[in-house]
Structure formats: structure tokens, C-alpha cells
Amino acid sequence: MNYHSRKLLKLNLAPWRMAAVGGLLLSGFVLVAGRAFYLQGLNTDYLQGKGDAVANRYLSLPAHRGQVSDRHGQLLAISTPVESLWARPTELKLSPVQQGQLARALDMSPKVLAKKLERKTRGEFSLQRPVTPEQAVKIAAMGVPGLHLRREFRRYYPAGDVAAHVVGFTNVDDQGQEGVERAYQDWLAGREGERQIMRDRRGNTIRDLVPIKTAQMGGNLALALDLKIQYLAHRELAAAIATHKAKGGSVVVLDAKTGEILALANQPNFNPNNRRNYQPGPMRNRAVIDTFEPGSTIKPFVAAAVLERGLFHPDSVIDTPQTWLVGTKRVRDEHPHPQMTVSEIIQKSSNVGAVKMAMTLTPQQFWEVLNRAGFGQKPGSGFPGETSGRLRDADSWKPVEQATMAYGYGLSVSLLQLSRAYMAFANDGEVMPLSFLKREPQEMVGERVFSPSVAREVRAMMETVTQEGGTGTRTRVPGYRVAGKTGTAHKVVNGRYAPDRYLASFIGMAPASNPRLIIGVAIDEPSGSVYYGGSVAGPVFAQVMAGSLRQLALPPDAPETATHVTQGTPPLVVRAGGGA
């Protein structure tokens, strides 16, 4: 290259332009250096926060759910720690071989696992909750980025299906869904805690920092339930449903003095420990949610209403022809008697006699008695889904409707509601508030429904129901006086009363001299020729009452003489004085 060509390549820049460019570069360097000094020397919180946001995570610490026990401390619901498998899609990298290993470890088909892994979400999602300890060991040994195990709690129910409808169950997130698990969710759940961890860029935990907030265990719950009585009610109800090939049924056992619910069983039922084949029908608490027309079990309230107003006395004689016309409705007795006393009307369950007594009341007077007894209102147990039944305002009643209500048609009740109402006869006129929780011994305040004298008079009438000539002779319990009332009601199908579908019931109390227990039994659609309340629900009452009285060690109140008992027939008790 000659001198001429080198001269052409030489830049002939003005000095001020070079100074400007150099000044700009120097200013930029000073600005960057100043910013770096400010961030790293004077204001370190900003970069520290950004770093912590990438490396640190806040995880919730599940709270240990409180235990549920019966009144004697027998556990009904407990929580056990388990591991669950979670995935982080942004970090998850599974080779085909690893995916096959994971499917085998989870006992899951590869297609199902692949479908779960295709889930479109930015946050974490669960692959399986919970996993067994053996599965957890295999998954941890794989060391797959984006898969991690999380400690949770799973609910376990030692009594299984026996107390399922009372205790209820929780979902996979440990939230109460039914029963007392739902009713007392806030008390049982406790409060979650929080802890901080540090992760590397692959999402692996490299440091477990101290908890920021400690989890608080939920409160324990002691139910009024007596597990031994609950087992008894569950067993006898299941046997009756099988014997009579019934659609379903319920049993309620109440402490008449405190209002505590000692047992509540339903059929069909479910196992809360295994809900893979979920069906809403068996999970329905029939005794609390389902309603039915009470039939003749309403008649003691008719007798109490007329006695309370002095219109009749227990030995008042009423003409009771086989049929009696009210408007266009013909009321009929299956087993007629020309005349009966008020007590005999209850004993023999006369429809004509009950209607004649009810028609001496105004609709408002009859309604007030039923309303005070709790019909048309929720029973107040606090149980999820409890129903108020149906009791229309008296202003809308027609004479024929008042007549049919006298023998239990035209209104609806739940078994829990009806059993609570009978507390008025067991408690000398007072009804105690219901409780699924155990109550401490204290003076309970009830609601007065009838005067003590009227309550005792009606209770004496109901005692004759269980004696010879009554409709409930199969409800007797050896050594104890029993009072109660049978009920057999046609069911409504497609807007009409079906001639061959019934609901059989019996509500009773013992010892009748000073009742401690009230037991309500309802059997839905018993099959075959035996469908009366005394024949279908009565024996269940007798067995449950006998076992419950023994469990509570209540002294007998009736001398008895043993009689020959054929297999499958309830024992016959003959009380002193010759009355059976």
C-alpha cells in the first residue's frame, strides 16, 4: 500500500466530535457504576427481594384437624399424616422411561397419567392424593425435577358406616362435607401455618427456613352419641330392612331429660372411609332430611289438645261408628267399636274417634297445639339440611283437611322432628332443645307444650297401646313399662296415595313411670303382607330400647313374669295386677 492510499484511509475527525463521543461513553460508565453502587452498597433490599422472590417460597402448613368422639371418649373421627404427590409444570421434565416408572409406582395406567400431566396450568397441581408410604419411597428415589411430596392429613373413621350419617366426612382438602364434620367445620379445622423454604433454579429444596406461622390444631368434639347404642340401632335397623325387604329406614334415640341425641341410624348407608363408588342416595340423612306423613302417631297430640281445653276426659265415651262423613270425605275404621273412651281411641288407633275429637277444636286451636309441639319448624339440632316439615296455616284449612290431619295426613314431619315432639309426653309437658353434642350436667330449660297433668294422662293412654288390645304389643320390653304410638301411612306416588306403599313407624318411651329414653323408628315401604307400624317398626323399637336401658343401667319399673317365647317373637311381659 503506497502513501496515497494510506492517506485516503485516515479519518479526519474534528476534535470536538471525538470529545463528545468520549464524554458520552464516560457518562454512561459513571451512571452504571453509580447505579450499581447504589443498589449493591446503599439499597440492597431491592436486589435481595428479587433474589428471594426467585429462590424462596412460602408453603402452607396444614393444621391437624380436631378429633370427634362419642360421649364416652370412643374415637369416631381422627386425622393421620399422609403424603400427596404434586407437580410443577414449569419444572417438570419426564422422560418416557420415567413416565412409565411413575405410572407403575402410582398403580395408574400410562394413559391416565399422561392425561393428568397434560393439564394446562401455571401453578402446582396434584397427581395423586394421598400416596401410600411405599409409593412415596419409590417416587422420592426417582428424583424427578418438578415432582414433590407434600405432607397432608387424611380423615379416618373408626366406626365406619355405623356412625357415618352423624359424623359425616371431609373432602380431599380436609373440609367437612356432611354431618358434624360440616356443622362444626370452623371448630374442627384449626388454622393453617406457613413456612419458608429456599430452592435452587431446578426447584429442589436446598434449605428449610424457620416457620413464619405455626399451625394451630383444631378443637376436639365430644358428641352426645353413645357408640354402643348407635351400634345397636344400626344392627337392628339393618336386620329389619332385610327382613321386610324395605326401601329404607331410620332410628332416632333421644335422652328425654337433656335433649341429647344418643343414636341416629339410617339405611341405606355408606362407608366414609371408602367413597370410590359415590352415590348421593345412601349419604342422605333420612332421619333429619326426609319428611313423611306421620299417620296415627299424631293422634296423641289430638287427645292432648282436647284434654288441655277440658273438652274431654280420658274416660269420656265417644260414639265411634265404622264410618263417619266429613264433607265428602268418608272416615273409616278397620276394626270398629260402637263406642270408645278417649283412652281406647288412642289404644286401638281409631280414625273416627280422633276425627270426632279434632272437629271439636277450631282450626286455629288445633294448629296452635301442633305448632307448639314443633311441627312446621326446624327441630333446632343445628344439623346440616334439617327440614321443618310442612304445616299449613290454619286459615287455609277446610273441614276435610282438619279431619285428615287428626290421623296424620295433610302434614309432614321428619323422624327427628316427630321424636322431639314426643318429648312433651315424656317430660311432663316440656320439650328440651336437641343437641348432637354432649351436654354437661346442668339445669336444662325446656319449652312448655302441655300442662304436666295432660302430659301424664296422654302418656298413660299411650301405655295402653303396648298392652293387650293395643296396636303395639310387639314393642314391650321385659321389666319396663313402655308407652308409645304406632303409625301406618300410605305414601304419595305421582300425586296420589298408593294403595300398596306404606311408611310404618313407632315412637315410644321408657320407663313409662319416668321416661328417660325416646326412640323413633320409621321403615319405608316394607314389602309383603306385613306393613303395620306395630309389626314392622315395633320390634326394632323393642330391641333397641331393651339394649339402651341396659346400657344406661336404668332400674326396671314393672315386675314381670316370664312366658314362653317362640323363636323370632319378642318376649311377652305380664305386669303385676294381671294387665298384659
Question: Would you mind describing this structure in some detail?
Answer:
This protein is an alpha+beta fold and 580 residues long. It has two domains: 58-78 and 153-221, Penicillin-binding protein 2a (Domain 2); 227-551, DD-peptidase/beta-lactamase superfamily (Beta-lactamase), CATH 3.40.710.10. It is 34% helix and 22% strand. The strands form seven sheets. Strands 2, 3, 4, 5 and 10 form a five-stranded mixed sheet that branches. A five-stranded antiparallel sheet has the order 12-11-21-20-19, sandwiched between helices. Strands 1-8-9 form a three-stranded antiparallel sheet. The protein is elongated and about 140 Å long. The N and C termini lie far apart (141 Å). 41% of the residues are buried.
Which percent range fits the helix content?
A: 25-40%
* Total DSSP helices: 21
CATH topology of the largest domain: Beta-lactamase
The domain count comes to 2
- Sheet with most strands: 5 strands, mixed
Name the CATH class of the largest domain: Alpha Beta
Quick check: average pLDDT? 85
CATH superfamily of the largest domain: DD-peptidase/beta-lactamase superfamily
Uncertain residue ranges: 561-580
**How many DSSP E strands?**
21
Shape: elongated
Question: Which second-level CATH architecture of the largest domain applies?
Answer: 3-Layer(aba) Sandwich
Radius of gyration: 37 Å
Beta-strand percentage range? 15-25%
Structural class: alpha+beta
Compute the separation of the termini in Å: 141 Å
Descriptive terms for the model:
2 domains, five-stranded antiparallel sheet, Beta-lactamase, elongated, 580 residues, 34% helix, disordered C terminus, five-stranded mixed sheet, Penicillin-binding protein 2a (Domain 2), alpha+beta
